[in-house]
Design brief:
Length: about 325
């Protein structure tokens, strides 16, 4: 079966299902977005009412984690989509629509404080949600290292065609130890400007949380403030870290932790994340044919260079990354 036939029969299946779950068969449907996985999203409209349809082919994607985590977060006051209807066997979900204004389109010098403080307030709600009431994988040593190993495989070897340096293993061990010594809470894992929707009520609307884990408390904050798609001045990042830190302390999320200790956790967590992301962006390009992510390599590499130069224990990584042949030019 050709790809277009497959796609047409999938669309046919979607329409058959929508007729059974919508209040009227007089609806329109248009593409809303796709993401770095096999999932696609459509906006379904009846008069002035809209929904988002998630199409997650069951042979590649499992919708159950999304459903479980969405219900759990909603119960804990987090603004995630409500699920109006689901067909797990076919991989279809009909969700509430957060509109089409991701933070990335709305952020500027005038809006940054308001938008990020709202996102941090929502992040605190996620972190206060009781971890014993939902079964999530642990962000353990195996997973942290598996992710970082995408960097030598896809960025150094496949993209730059250079040898893997010997010190990487020690670097990865240091980053893993820092991640595991932090308080472990619910981690969204992609808490950034493309997955936070600026909504009229209760902003932000939070999407793309199906890969959530129990892991290091600084992870989502660094995804937010050192976003691979938008750069903020260091002073602004510091100010927002302090905003988060004081609320987290007030809620008992960070007891007996100094701001200096938290900033180091934050920096090293960002280093782990950005090392991984360099590998992921290259894999999305070379393996999955999604070349647009290559535009974001330069900023991601900037973060890795910046933080590795700040801490003496990463001097080998810093020197290695400052060689002329390590460049994001694709």
């Amino acid at each position: 079966m050709s790809h277009s036939n497959e796609s047409n029969s999938r669309l046919e299946e979607i329409h058959q299902w929508l007729k059974t779950v919508l209040p009227s068969v007089e609806y329109t449907m248009e593409a809303a977005s796709s993401d770095a996985s096999f999932r696609r999203y459509f906006r379904v409209t009846i008069e002035t009412k809209t929904w988002i349809l998630m199409d997650a082919p069951p042979e590649q994607e499992d919708t159950q984690p999304f459903i479980d985590i969405a219900r759990f977060l909603l119960q804990n006051g987090v603004n995630v989509p409500e699920i109006y209807a689901s067909n797990i066997k076919s991989g279809f979900l009909l969700l509430s629509d957060f509109g089409n204004s991701p933070y990335l389109n709305e952020l500027n010098e005038n809006s940054v404080n308001e938008l990020y403080k709202a996102a941090i307030d929502s992040l605190i709600k996620i972190q206060l949600s009781p971890t014993d009431e939902i079964r999530l994988p642990n962000y353990d040593k195996v997973l942290l290292e598996q992710e970082m190993n995408l960097f030598p495989e896809w960025y150094l070897q496949r993209h730059l065609n250079i040898a893997i340096p010997n010190f990487l293993e020690t670097t990865f061990d240091t980053l893993t130890a820092s991640a595991l010594e932090q308080p472990q809470r619910i981690v969204h894992r992609d808490y950034h400007s493309r997955n936070l929707m600026h909504t009229i009520d209760n902003s932000p609307g939070i999407i793309d949380f199906q890969d959530a884990v129990i892991g290091p408390i600084s992870y989502d904050l660094v995804s937010l403030l050192r976003d691979c798609y938008i750069l903020w001045p260091d002073e602004k990042v510091s100010e927002l870290i302090e905003y988060y830190f004081s609320i987290a302390q007030n809620h008992g999320l960070l007891t007996d932790v100094s701001l200096e200790q938290f900033i180091k956790w934050f920096d090293l967590m960002g280093l782990q994340r950005h090392i991984k992301v360099l590998g992921i962006f290259c894999r999305l390009n070379y393996r999955d044919g999604k070349s647009n992510y290559m535009n974001d390599l330069a900023l991601t590499l900037h973060y890795v260079r910046n933080i590795s130069s700040k801490y003496p224990e990463f001097s080998e990584l810093s020197n290695f990354l400052n060689q002329p042949e390590i460049s994001p030019i694709s």
